[in-house]
Amino acid sequence: MRPSARDIAVIAVTVALLIGGQALFAALPGVEVVTVVLLSFSWSFGAARGILTATAYSLLRCFFFGFDAKTVVLYLLYFNFFACLFGVLGGRGGGKAGAAGEKAEKEGKGEKEKISPLSAVFTEGLFLALCVLAAAVLSGAVRVSVLLQTGLNILAWVLLFIASAGAVAYNILLFFSRKYPACAAAAQTVAAAAAAAVCTVLFTLLDDALYPLFYGVRGEAAVAYFYASFTAMLPQTVCALVSVSILFRPLTRVFRRFATPRSGR
Q1: What is the C-alpha R_g of the chain?
Q2: What does each C-alpha distance from 238 to 47, 158, 163, 198 come to in angstroms?
Q3: Taking CA 211 as the corner, what is the angle to CA 209 and CA 215, rounded to the nearest 5 degrees?
Q4: 123-127, 185-189, 249-253, 256-260: which has the minimum mean pLDDT?
Q5: By C-alpha distance, which of 68, 234, 47, 226 is closest to 151?
Q6: For 142, which DSSP code?
Q7: What is the C-alpha separation between 212 and 209, in angstroms, rounded?
Q8: What span, in angstroms and rounded, lies between the C-alpha atoms of 76 and 57?
Q9: Which of 14, 36, 98, 84 is nearest to 236 (CA)?
């Protein structure tokens, strides 16, 4: 893909939003503004442009937050995968998808979301993964200090409730999606929120894998870092679920106005 001047301008503005959003909410643990913005952008513009944005953000943020080799590698690996995943799930990025969106817009019909059987199975698996994670914490499989255990259990119950409620809501919306287009759009929002939550878990696990490699930590110290990361991962996961559920649809509407070419302008 050869980015146009329009693409470069939109990517530059989005990278600025990502860096600015991270700086603005850096003092608030668990706020996932980068997740929802990059998710909505990649969903609207496709995997190729999402990867360009993720790479630019991962490198340029070093000028504001400092250079750390482990963090750069972590961000490059994770956010490029993240952008690719949601770019593919969104089915955008020009070609037939872009032409279909432009045609629908010209006809005044709006965009109708379609949920494939593969997407439905994928989403059901995501909700199951979140429930398993919460159950593992509540069963005591994750070992943390006594002071942290109570707070961790509360977060796990919240995650379990949200994931269970999301699974029920998704299946209800899926049932009515063929008859009511609004239900299909809502089901896509629920699916995006679930995928974002699971990706947040993967981000923590990837960080746990890279930490010993870059800092030479072995044995009990590496295990301690792994368990300690759960106290940050669970609130981030819950925040990703909530923020994407609320902001995904408005942001994708804004981004898709710029993603769909308009003739005669």
Answers
A1: 19
A2: 25, 8, 9, 10
A3: 140
A4: 256-260
A5: 234
A6: S
A7: 7
A8: 9
A9: 36
**CB-based contacts of 17, cutoff 8 Å, min separation 6:** 37
Share of the chain above pLDDT 70, in %: 85
- How is residue 181 written in tokens? 């287009």
pLDDT tens readout for residues 157-177: 988 998 899 899 999 998 898
Q: How far apart are CA 184 and CA 173, in angstroms?
A: 7
CA distances from 189 to 85, 159, 185 (A): 15, 17, 6
Question: pTM (2 decimals)?
Answer: 0.82
Residue 259: band (very low, low, confident or very high) from pLDDT cuts 50, 70, 90:
confident
Dihedral angle over CA of 204, 210, 215, 221, nearest 10: 50
What pLDDT is recorded for position 199? 92
Domain ranges for the chain: 5-259
Tokens 């509540």, residue located: 138
| Number of other CB atoms surrounding residue 6 within 10 Å | 11
| Sign of torsion over alpha carbons 121, 123, 125, 127 | negative
Sign of the Cα pseudo-torsion (221, 65, 42, 75, in order) = negative
